[in-house]
Amino acid sequence: MKAKGIISILAIVGLLLFVAVSVLSGGGKGKATSTSTALRRAEGNRYSVELPGGTRSVPDQINYQGYLVNSSDTSAVTDILDMTFEIFDDPIYGYPLWSETHDSVEVTNGLFNVLLRIPDTLFTGRELWLQTKIEEEFLWPRKKLVSVPYGYRSGVADRADQATRADSAFYALYSDTAEYALSATPDADWVISGDNIYRLNGNVGIGTMSPTTALHINRMFAPLGNFYSYPAIIESPHHYAYPIIRSESQASILFHAALYPVAWGIGRDEILDGIDIFSMPISSGWPDVHNRTSRMAITNNGNVGIGTTEPNYKLDVEGDVQAHAYHTGDIFFQKDGQKLWRMFEDENGLYLENVKTGKVYRFVLQEVER
Q: How far is the C-alpha of 365 from the C-alpha of 367, rounded, in Å?
């Protein structure tokens, strides 16, 4: 039986110590070596440093131990449980930067142990938090990662005199922030021009590691205690702010909720020369923009059409209309596009006019008791 309502007291156990502090070489103890003599190699192991007595690889796993108790009585858990570990750059919000699932982890008297293969590229000096999921239950709060996992960065030689990849190396073959980068190969991603920064190719992701468009924003979680999430806010200190969506012919905004089979949109339509509110089916998870149906159109001259994209009147409806009341003047009756009768009134009564002949007929009204 899977444990329910688990509380976790988790602590990262440090296994990665920077090799410059103390190194075991062969069968005996090696001498401590300064980072200034460490040379990063890229030919053999994933990451290595040159030390007295030979080359040593930096392990690419972190040992993670934890203690699980039941929330009901704080008794230690003994079970076989599925566990998922995720890393975030925020203690509450955000999208996971890394995720790893371990099936059938043995928990004995509350204790468990797993080896996490976390990419060293995550440890760039920023603050990180570990989220643990036991079966279907997320454990809160997230645990802040401290110094030991950041020892991973010894593998990429942050402060080596010479490095193939370095964030602050004195000399680097590939580096954005090296003090000197003689004959360095440019990374060709972002370009800084005065106060502007830009790139001409590729996609940018915020909250996602797999952006599918030029700008892909994914707000994975809403703030705690709030059902709603606001992925983006466009704000201006001026009285008038006009966010612009511009294209050569058509410019639209689509609204797609994954739970529903239809997407909605509003946009500039070049055919009707106005604004169109439309719907479209979902195909393979995406709105089918080639199969859109107009629901309401507003032309440049202010005519509104419901069921038609060519409204000839201020309100042109193709279909039945239901209303509780009409506040109107003359009423015209037409068929096949031709006006046949006009109903109008004055202080003396109610009249019906034959539009073709011009003859007018007066309704004979009889008072009834209510």
A: 7
